[in-house]
Amino acid sequence: MTNDHRPTSQFVNRAELADLLRVDKSTFKVWGNRHGDFPAPVGTDERGAHFYEFEPMQRWLDHRKVLASKLIDDESVGTTYGDRLRRRMVAHRTHTSTTAATVSATPAEERADADALLAQLRLWPRSSSNRGGVAIAGLAIAFLNTADPTAFQSIPHARQGVPLPRLWSMVTDRLDKAGQRQGISAHLSSELRTMRPPSIQNLLTVAGIAAGLGPHAAQRLVEQFDMQAELGPTRYVAPASVSHLMAGCAVGAATDRRVTLYDPNIRGGEILHAVLERLGPHVDVTIDARAADQDLAQLAGLSLATTGSRTTISAATSPWSQLNRRFASSVVTNPPFNDRLDPSTQDLPWPYGTPPLHNGNYAWLQLAASVLEPGGFASVLMPAKAGQSSNADERKIRTAMARAGVVHAVISLPDKLFRPTDLPATIWVLRSPSTSPAPIRFVDARNAGELTATGRRCLPRNVVDDIVGYVTADSNERVGTPDASWQGIAVAKEQIEQFDGALEPALYLQPKTMPAPKELLAQTRRVQQQVLTAIDAARTTGARLAALDFQPSLPANWKTKPLSHLCDLQSGPPPAKLKAANRDPSGVPVISNKHLNDGIIVHTETDGVREDIAGRMGRYRVATNDVLVVRTGSLGRPAIVGADHRNYLLGSNLVRLRPYDPDQLDPSFLRIVLGSSEVLAWMRSHSAGTVVHSLGADQLQKLTVVVPPITDQRAIVSAIQVIDEQIRTLNRALDAARDARDHLTDGMLSGAVGVSV
Q1: Which residues form a coiled coil (predicted)?
Q2: Which of 1, 66, 302, 492 has its CA 20 to 30 A from that of 138?
Q3: What is the spatial distance between Cα 633 and Cα 630, in angstroms, rounded to a whole number?
Q4: Distance between CA atoms of 744 and 281, rounded to whole angstroms?
């Protein structure tokens, strides 16, 4: 991989140009006044100094000869200022590279350094409250270490007699200049300028950490920014395991020494990082990318600059301008799912059919395939159901792409891989068109995800490597079994057309084997017995229900009281207390409405709030027999806190009710009252707003409820428990009957089980 630090859109200011060209700064004003074609400045830095785009300036200087009296060193007559600029730029890059840190850290060490850097920066006073600001500041420091390592190396030598604010200003100035040279931004220091090193020692500590920062540290900082800034559904970054899988499928079989990578919807540059890691340092890589906006362009630009690759990132331009250009060796992209297209796209020369306006999924797929050079591959992230969408236009495009041999593989991914959603996705592996289409490989990896401490899933690296090996190999053999973590199959286009062109792995990986007749008959008899057992249990529960003695009227000794007289009510904490920055995988777990399931709490996640913060949230801790009610979102049955969940934290969308005296108000009775249809109707009528249910403790405490004597309360609880048990046993009987039907159907249709009427 080359280490050319001059991307296509490099910026340079007048002072830097004057130094490189060995001229006075006033020379540029003279040239500007005398020559109408002199390049205009493209912006100013934070101090008002003009800066220029490098290449237009280079081309103009190529036509400006140096006077004989102004020649320097070994320059000959006829030398242009453009020649001098090239020579001086090479000398500058050589000097920068020789002063860079020589210690090469491992990926794990770099990621640890990134975490250490963030820990230091969090100690610095900030005047900004931008989400993700600390991570962006860390990423800017990692970038500066690559682009201008002497900025930090000079701090120990410059600190004698130099005030701390001036030292810090020197660093931020160098950052802005590096951003201009790389064409990323002239204002990279904006976040860092809102921060102040507490002391010289803090600054020296950061400088020491910066020396070990590189591409892996940049990836870690992008991940941290994604979590802290809580990027929306069209901006979040792909997790590392998905990025590596996409990278391997796009370049796993690449043998070229020169590669052009393209990402038409770059986010944090994480997928391209994975591609560069897989290609290794001996491949000459050029990166062309497009970002949806300037913020993402800066994020990806900072991150990818740490790799030393030639990178051009355009912002807010139309991706469709590249359609059918065929310039890329490989394409990797995570486009926005199901986005509406601009009406102008209907007039474009789509190679496989015009995509519908209401959904751009098949526009992104066609774009990726259309820019591939012969022999190139693309990995495109898509929604899980894109392969079997019922829209007529999309079905035609899908069929045309399959017939043209453009679809190489489709991989179904597990759910809970991506930070902002639990929904699964698919990876489409595309290739340049072929006159002899090969079978399409379908991989079902929905069971391959391992749950992590954050509650998200991750694809193990060995699984990623195995799938990449299967997708990029020449073999068409079926691999894996239904009980394996993943399985794959190669399917000919004729079989795909029998399924109406659907490209859904599960359709082609259904189990084909039938159990032996004796085993099938044994299974049938077992499920028959399960049905009978479930029916007997339902009868027993029904008998218990029939034995209950229900009274026709309200007894005289029953009272009505507002909840405020019966229990302590507490609404959940403000969402800001539970924000991502306060989270810790080993922290105190938080109960939210999604954990309330049929009157009980089901909580298996390991994500929680940091111990130091949870220690200051005592009133939001729950205790055994507390009753929890949903206060925002969809109304549902309340739940009781069991011993397993005591001392957990109350979620923002819940209200906690704690009876003052359990011998006066039974918690199980309170749960039944709050889940009754009458009380739920009251809650809806007293909720704030008209679209989303919202009810606080201050409103709920006004609810008046019937309070029988404690013996009657417990009798009601027992009766409801019998009814709930009857519902559960009937559901089990229904499930057993459905299971029996499936087994009997398979057995009778296969001839393994006979039947006589």
Answers
A1: none
A2: 1
A3: 7
A4: 60
If pLDDT is split at 50, 70 and 90, which confidence band does 162 have? confident
| pLDDT value of position 466 | 94
Placement of tokens 């009157």 in the chain: 599
List the one residue out of 746, 173, 254 whose CA is nearest residue 510: 746
Q: Specify the residue for token string 């079905």.
A: 395
pLDDT given for residue 10 in this prediction: 56
Residue that is written with structure tokens 């410059």 in the block: 158
Q: Is 678 exposed, middle or buried (0-12, 13-18, 19+ CB in 10 A)?
A: exposed
Tens digits of residue pLDDT in 25-76: 788 888 888 888 998 886 665 456 676 777 788 889 999 998 888 888 778 8
Sign of CA dihedral 694, 700, 704, 706: positive
CA atoms of 427 and 443, how far apart (whole Å): 10
Among candidate residues 244, 239, 294, 284, the one with its CA nearest the CA of residue 260 = 284
* pLDDT for 410: 97
Which is more confident, 424 or 730?
Answer: 424
Give the integer Cα–Cα distance in Å for 380 and 355. Answer: 16
Could you tell me the two tokens for 409? 């593989």
Backbone angles phi, psi at 717, to 5 degrees: -60, -45
Nearest to 656 by CA among 700, 617, 716, 694: 700
- CB under 8 Å, gap of 24 or more: what pairs does 170-177 form? 171/144, 174/144, 174/148, 175/140, 175/143, 175/144, 175/148, 175/151, 176/45, 176/46, 177/13, 177/16, 177/148
Q: What is the pLDDT of residues 584-636, one digit of tens each?
A: 877 899 998 888 877 788 887 767 888 888 899 999 999 999 999 988 656 66
- Sequence-distant (≥ 6) Cβ neighbours of residue 154 within 8 angstroms: 170
Give the number of residues written for the chain.
757
- Give the residue from 88, 67, 85 showing the smallest Cα distance to 76: 67
Q: What are the φ/ψ torsions at residue 29 (nearest 5 degrees)?
A: -65, -40
Whole-angstrom distance, CA of residue 193 vs CA of residue 196: 7
Please tell me the predicted confidence (pLDDT) of residue 313.
Answer: 87
Residue 595 DSSP SS3: helix
Q: Which residues share a beta bridge with 675?
A: none
Q: Which of 721, 730, 723 is nearest to 534 (CA)?
A: 730
3-state secondary structure of 12: strand
pLDDT tens-digit series, residues 380-418: 999 998 998 889 999 999 999 999 999 999 999 999 998
Cα-based angle 472, 475, 478 (whole degrees, multiple of 5): 105
Alpha carbon distance 160, 166 (integer Å): 12
pTM of the model as a whole = 0.60
Q: Are 209 and 105 in contact (CB under 8 A)?
A: no
Decide: residue 74, CB within 10 A, 0-12 exposed, 13-18 middle, 19+ buried: exposed
Structure tokens, 512: 């084909």
Which tokens go with 227?
A: 């979590």
644: left (phi over 0), alpha (psi -120 to 50) or beta: alpha
Give the torsion through C-alpha atoms of 605, 606, 610, 614, to 10 deg: 50
What is the model's pLDDT at position 74? Answer: 74
Q: H/E element holding 504? A: none
Dihedral sign from CA coordinates of 27, 29, 34, 36: positive
Q: What secondary structure does DSSP assign to 242-297, as a single string?
A: HHHHHHHHHHTT---SEEEEEEEEESSSHHHHHHHHHH-TTSEEEEEEEESSHHHH
CA proximity to 484, closest of 460, 519, 518: 460
**Backbone torsion region of residue 485, taken as left when φ is above 0, otherwise alpha when ψ lies between -120 and 50, otherwise beta:** alpha
